[in-house]
Amino acid sequence: MSVPHQPAGDTAATAEVTAGAVLSPATGPVADVELPDTDETGADAALEPAVEGVAPRGTDLLVREGDVAGDYLERLLDILDVDGDIDLDVEGDRASVAIVGGELDDLVGSDGAVLEALQELTRLAVAQATGVRSRLMLDVGGYRAKRRADLTSMAADTAARVAGSGQPERLSPMNPFERKVVHDVIAGVAGVRSESEGEEPARRVVVLPER
């Protein structure tokens, strides 16, 4: 597949609309359980055990989620005439899917906005096929990997400042994936701790000195 020359943003806008249209009719009922994204530590992570009726995700289910997501995204790329390969993996307790190669910036969007929308639509497609809500993680063009590296560096610098000054610092609003990266870094630094405050989409991490 080749990438057509379009003004910046055209593919991004088309991707969000097309991704919804590609969804297949549900093959069965989706369990009516609102599954937290569990992308954080502390109070946020404690939410998941409180959800009743959510069974642990076995490897077979995660592989199935990846296969469904891969098929869905392949159809999406075909419709958009975008060149890209799809890598499937299982990381911990979730399926991991990555679109790599080609010109993929429009599928990421400003600050990853299109990527987040595509991830949610892909999760919905998986839920329709499996009957189970999905926590699948989607990456496009290595965006999340680069963002993880940037956030890791920023979180380490923030932890050092807070440990030295004894004063808390509030970070910019982040999505659940980004907040988890920061929480994980802070958890490994002595003398500081982190928590989240606020509501989506303005929810943010606060780094504080250890009590």
UniProtKB/TrEMBL annotation:
| Single GO term (MF) | RNA binding
One Pfam family cited in the UniProt record for this chain: R3H
Q: Which SUPFAM superfamilies match?
A: R3H domain
Domain called R3H: residue spans: 145-211
CDD domains reported in the protein's UniProt record: KH-II_Jag (cd02414), R3H_jag (cd02644)
Q: Which Gene3D superfamilies match?
A: 3.30.300.20, R3H-like domain
The cross-references to PANTHER family, in alphabetical order and at most eight, read: PROTEIN JAG, RNA-BINDING PROTEIN KHPB
By what name is this protein known?
SpoIIIJ-associated protein
Source organism per entry reads: Geodermatophilus nigrescens
